UniProtKB/TrEMBL annotation:
Residues 57-244 form the Metallo-beta-lactamase domain. It comes from the Bacteria. PANTHER family: ACYL-COENZYME A THIOESTERASE MBLAC2 (PTHR42951:SF4), METALLO-BETA-LACTAMASE DOMAIN-CONTAINING (PTHR42951). The lineage of its organism: Bacteria, Pseudomonadati, Pseudomonadota, Alphaproteobacteria, Hyphomicrobiales. It comes from Chelativorans salis. This is MBL fold metallo-hydrolase.
Amino acid sequence: MKFRSDDTTLSRRDLIRVSGAGVLAGTGLALAGAAASAQEPAGLVKVHRQGVETPFPLNAYLVEGEDGLVVVDAMLTNSASRNLRAKADGFGKPLRAVLLTHPHPDHYAGLGNLTEGLDIPIVSLAEVNDIARRDDADKDAVISGMFGEEWPTNRIFPNDTIGDGETLDFGPGLRFTVMDIGPAESFHDSIFVLEGPAPTAFVGDLVYSFMHPYMADNANPDWKRAISRLQSELPEDMILHVGHGLPATPAFLAWQEAYLDRFEAAILGADWDNPDAARAAVLEDMMAFLPSDELLFFLEQSILPNAKRLGMAE
């Protein structure tokens, strides 16, 4: 089976190379690629990745079934979410539903633009829905000043909720089962597994593909527990469609865990008698681990909350 990202068809082996043949940044440890010899069943499942680079790298997904579409996550800005809707309309198939993986605004803020004029289910775990609604006023106070007219004022929230293990069926090729992950990268995360001959899942921000992650929700111990669970439960050749970056496989979870460990060690090793110097030292250490500016501001926002959690700062 093959999976389609944007309008480029990627084979299963291509995607496994992305995650399995990479080198664990800063350690030289190669990520496992045990699934590279997996057979590709006949057929074509169309998963279209809608990626943007502005204001930062971010993905949403259009899953194309036989006679309809399902969109996973809804982008952050007016431009990106309206373009996502235009992309969906361009298929000439009805948009059946939108699925929300977690309650961060770069994934839910565009829901109003995406579903404008449509009466369709917007589905999430109840906890994801509750947290998005709870925190939206605080997010609005911060983000509206950052993005101005690009920040959607017509924000809406899920109108339907499901529980762990429940299955959603929106027609041929559009059958999803939800996994309740609980607190991890965000205050509550979930995974939507697309049923079919080959394993594939939409994991939100539980994995960042060689980008600095957002850790300011301060749940890294829970995130590491979630990683351990996923390493034991997900098929090794499952394709993980992520919120930021290229698709991966579960082998990449080892890199994500190593990043979280390195981040905590950097905080504990810094001299917090001088907080500015300590923050600079953490940034330097993490840039040595992952020498990239991609989502660096996520890392910058995450240092102080985690330093407080670890008892290193007030």
